[in-house]
Amino acid sequence: MKYKLLSLNVGRPEVYATEKGDLKSAYRKTPVNETTFLTYLNFEGDEQADKKNHGGRDKAVCLYPAQHYRHWEETYNKSFAFPAFGENITVEGIDERDVCVGDIFQLGDALLQISEPRKPCYIIARTHGIDDFPARVTKEGFTGFYLRVLQEGSVTPGDMMSLVERHPAEVPVAEVNEVLYHDRKNHEKLRRILEVDAVADGLRGTLQKRLET
Predict the structure, then answer these.
(1) CA proximity to 203, closest of 119, 79, 133, 126
(2) Residue burial 200-212, b: 16+ Cβ < 10 Å; e: rest
(3) Residue 116 and residue 60: Cα distance in Å, rounded?
(4) pLDDT at 55
(5) Cβ-count burial of 182 within 10 angstroms (0-12 exposed, 13-18 middle, 19+ buried)?
(6) Which of 81, 83, 98, 114 has the least C-beta neighbours within 10 A?
(7) HSE on the CB side for 134, CA within 13 Å?
């Protein structure tokens, strides 16, 4: 399977005004047109404001599917330009239902592995002035996801993102979202996800605690 990288986006922390006051975040990223090097932690020129909840090896790259933009434009009757969801890479055709935690992809010279779904937070609501945005994202399952970098390398807008290896557990990102937000006490599914060696450490801790209650 191959998917096209439509937009490569980076940004550094900034303070910007919202309807509910100033916000410090690196959410508002800017598309870049040139080849950019991807390290184990981030793209060059990219940084996180809240390093407790963002960034690190398991969240080096945030991906958002480009086709979801059309859904949100119809839902809210407004236009959203890349990267309105604060993503590093906007990729056409890839979908949370079709890819699995642990899947490995080639993008340019870099090798990436899906680590966990992206959790939408209040920043998406504050940035766009839409209070119910995070809740709608989790309800629809259009969250996007994070990837860790297995091999550093250069990436160019327009590159194809190609599946190199499907994880043998075959747990779709959408299934993890279902357990996180809707089927929270399904111990069978919790155990199935926890058996995936590629699950991000933070997510593993969250699910393990839920399994023990």
Answers:
(1) 119
(2) bebbbeebeebee
(3) 11
(4) 75
(5) exposed
(6) 81
(7) 12
- Please give the share of the chain, as a percent, with pLDDT higher than 90: 84
More confident residue, 81 or 53: 81
| Euclidean distance between CA atoms 158 and 213, whole angstroms | 46
Kindly state the tokens that stand for 160.
């194809």
Lookup result for tokens 């090097």? 37
pLDDT level of residue 63 (50, 70, 90 thresholds): very high
Dist CA 68 CA 60 (whole Å): 21
User: In 105-120, which positions are buried (b, 16+ CB within 10 angstroms) versus exposed (e)?
Assistant: bbbbebbbbbbbbbbb
Alpha helix stretches (DSSP H) within the chain? 68-76, 122-128, 133-140, 173-181, 187-194, 201-211
If DSSP codes are grouped into helix, strand and coil, which group holds residue 110? strand
How, if at all, do strands 89-92 and 61-65 pair? parallel
**What's the whole-number mean pLDDT along residues 60-82?**
97
Dist. CA 148–CA 56, nearest whole Å: 9
User: Mind listing the domains of the chain with CATH numbers?
Assistant: 2-169 (2.40.33.20)
Q: Which residues contact 204 (CB under 8 A, 6 or more apart)?
A: 194
Tell me the pLDDT tens digit for each residue of 178-193.
Answer: 999 999 999 999 999 9
